[in-house]
């Protein structure tokens, strides 16, 4: 590959990370070409399909997800491994709306990520079994609870990145306490409506209708 072609490919991937990261996978290819300051034809020459572009764009995040799963499974303390896995997944999702969309298989173009999701859910199931046997994880926990948690976590994606990261970490802390067999009374307590994160999430940034299913919005 010629040096100019390599440069163009790198520009496209940088642009895709930026655009998908903030707008999600619904962002059109033309927006990525515009962000990369390249003609759409150049983009399609490197990535003929959106699926191919998505797969390459999130290679780093997929590796991080694999590492999080591996580290959790090899942790000698299953509850510690379980907590770390939740924290790291939330962090990955908060940093990129596009990766969160892909991981949750919300778009047909991201079906390559289904294996990552299944691998993570299998790891959670195994960690949950170990943590429950150790008496640390509440007996009623099921893997679907993690899916429910990640679905709720997507509600943070409309906030700016710094706010997302702060809110995501607090969200993960609350979820971990909810899953703990004996909740810790020292769990974090948010100062609702007083922090920049709370103001951004409750006033200018989030449209409440984006947190409701489409059919409920239609009935209003």
Please describe the structure with a list of short key phrases separated by commas or semicolons.
68% helix, mainly alpha, 220 residues
Fold and architecture overview:
It is a single chain. The chain has 220 residues and is mostly helical. 68% of the residues lie in helices and 0% in strands.
What is the N-to-C order of secondary-structure elements (H for helix, E for strand)?
HHHHHHHHHHHH
Task: Evaluate the radius of gyration.
Answer: 19 Å
Low-confidence stretches: 189-220
Alpha-carbon distance between the termini? Answer: 55 Å
- The global form is elongated
Oligomer: single chain
| Annotation field: number of helices | 12
Integer average pLDDT? 81
Number of separate strands: 0
The SS-based structural class is: mainly alpha
Short description:
The protein has 220 residues and is mainly alpha-helical. It has 12 helices and no strands.
Write the layout of secondary structure elements.
Elements: H1 3-23, H2 29-36, H3 40-46, H4 50-57, H5 59-74, H6 78-95, H7 97-103, H8 114-133, H9 143-153, H10 161-179, H11 196-204, H12 214-219
Helix pairs in contact: 1-2, 1-4, 5-6, 5-8, 6-7, 6-8, 6-10, 10-11
